[in-house]
Amino acid sequence: MGTVTAADPHPSFLADKDAKVFVAGHRGLVGSAVLRRLLALGFTSVVVRTHAELDLTRQADVEAFLAAERPRYVVLAAAKVGGIHANSTFPADFIAANLQIQTNVVDAALRCGSVRKLLFLGSSCIYPKFAPQPITEGALLSGPLEPTNEWYAVAKIAGIKMCQAYRIQHGLDAVSAMPTNLYGPHDNFHPENSHVLPALIRRFHEAKATNAPEVVVWGSGSPLREFLHVDDLADAVIFLMDQYSGLEHVNVGSGSEVTIKELAELVKEVVGFQGKLVWDSSKPDGTPRKLMDSSKIQGMGWKPKIALKEGLVETYKWYVENVVSDEK
Ligand code: GFB
């Protein structure tokens, strides 16, 4: 048990490493990184469930699970996620699954009576398409959303509001973190439904392996994106669990952005593909730019550590060792 003093009846998160922590979504990009970090820090009682063991879209199952486990902390990293194509092709799945998962987990976390803190994870796509850059937390709900992912964005905005409402009405210490575009090990490398960075790793790798002359990249190449390695996000999640109890959500970004063209050139170089890039302008660009203003969390003392090139080299290695070898 962590240290409890008379002045502070509750230990901080990092001083409470034997308390039970439920990581929802531990097989995904974010949840797996948070789990790795918690275990590395010496947390002794981390509870996880696979999708087959617990379907988080089923309210009664989630209530029964949390009532039985009674965790002290919850990290809500479970979500239905995907890239620009998946978001625009499966809008019903994205809005329904995300609303169900987050509503069930936040509500059951309150009802089970044991949860001292919950952290909900969203996304930079909650902000208006043409928000002033860099985007501050205050830009939320100040303009229309990017149409390719508005269904997912509306669900994530509802999650922020759910945390705020439960804090105001019930005193639940529920906080929200909004990461920028993430990448790293355990990402989804699906050819169509993934995000741009894993999609390009797969496409360049397969083109190199088959000696293909060219690789197709979607859109114009001009949109700007900010990328953050998921291990940096996991550090931020632990930091916020320990340090932050505010009503407002918190942006988590790297502060550096690249055009999709620059990203494609970088992935090409890291993978070692020698051919040409061809741009498919029939595919959408999505939002032109979404650079987060992360001065709030940086002002509290968190900083990203992993540069894009370094993270890309490591992620490509992970892809070759885990995804490529599994598919053989
Ligand atoms: O990563 P991505 O799907 O996410 O696309 P968003 C980023 C940019 O990369 C877009 C281009 O301009 C795409 O057109 N792109 C180029 C590609 N080639 C590819 C490719 O092969 N696959 C993909 N996926 N893109 C997502 C949202 O938006 O961002 C989600 O849809 C979520 O809801 C996530 O918020 C963080 O940055 O456009």
UniProtKB/TrEMBL annotation:
UniProt KW Oxidoreductase keyword: yes
Gene Ontology molecular function: any one: GDP-L-fucose synthase activity
Enzyme Commission number(s): 1.1.1.271
SUPFAM superfamilies associated with the record: NAD(P)-binding Rossmann-fold domains (SSF51735)
Reaction it catalyzes: GDP-beta-L-fucose + NADP(+) = GDP-4-dehydro-alpha-D-rhamnose + NADPH + H(+)
Pfam families: Epimerase
UniProt pathway annotation: Nucleotide-sugar biosynthesis; GDP-L-fucose biosynthesis via de novo pathway; GDP-L-fucose from GDP-alpha-D-mannose: step 2/2
Domain NAD-dependent epimerase/dehydratase: 21-253
GO biological process: 'de novo' GDP-L-fucose biosynthetic process
Keyword Transferase part of the UniProt annotation: no
Keywords for the protein's UniProt record, in alphabetical order: Isomerase, Multifunctional enzyme, NADP, Oxidoreductase
Similarity-based family: Belongs to the NAD(P)-dependent epimerase/dehydratase family. Fucose synthase subfamily.
Record PANTHER family: GDP-L-FUCOSE SYNTHASE
The name this protein goes by in its record: GDP-L-fucose synthase
Organism of origin: Panicum hallii var. hallii
